[in-house]
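Predict structure. Input: 32464_t:CDS:1, 318 residues.
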Amino acid sequence: MSRQNQHYYTYIRWKNGVSVPEVHAKLGAAEGSRALSKRTIERWVSAFNNGDESVEDKPRPGRLRQATTQETIAKVENLVIEDPHSTTRELSDIVGISQAQITNILTNKLGMRKNGYRNVITGDETWIHYFTVSNKQNNKQWVKKGESRPQIVRTARNSKKRMFCVFFSVDGAVACKVVKKGSTVNSKYYVNDVLPEVFDKFKKKRDRQSIRNVMLHHDNASSHTAGIVTKYLKRERITLLPHPPYSPDLAPCDFFLFPKLKKELAGRHFERIENLARAVNSIINTIPNREYEKCFQDWQNRLKRCIEAGGGYFEGMM
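Output follows.
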């Protein structure tokens, strides 16, 4: 089915009140990799809703200089600002010029490049207490000269807690799994219960058919580096990003997500695991996407500083 025919099919289904996900699913089943992306369908439906019911392909100028007008450049820039994950194919459909011309505008006229974070998932495990005390920094307070320092509550070693497995990408939380009481996150549990759930949710989040070419980052815990895990990732065609040992400053969970999560939980008390899990999910899912994106940028900057300091081992993560 040609792109114009898919455009027409989308228009007919829209007229009949069919939702974008349903249209995308039907086209995907019929056309496979040649099907229109969900974002392209959403934009077409948005145009239909705004009164533009044309299903004709827009004319595409044959010469490069005809495509690089100030008006076209501005339109491409605004579309990318609106959706940084836009593909050249999607931009080509909207603007009405070739993908080569779109690439020329993005790289040569706007000085943009596609970052490499899009398909990276990073994650780790962490203990979360049913009652999280404030950290040392938050406990600081002003006192008058001669006054005693107020007592600071500390977490008891035997206080109630549960382990959570949390994974995220550049555009937000991917998965948050509560480890069953009495269970241990060993390599078998990690490969059978944790990773399949993470990748399944990532596919749904990105509306992907497979997880091939996805990149995974985790630390060097024995449950992560065991042979059974390596074989699983190889079989699923997942690229594993290396992580230097004893380097929490280079783990996004450690320098970004977990401190933020536990700060938000400080001072709150939960009686049931369901309530604690609900609170954790709420926190990680309401962190703005721009903060997740900034985390990945910070991560890259930390890696660059390591390389500049002579840590050539880290170059494989760039």
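The chain has 14 helices and five strands.
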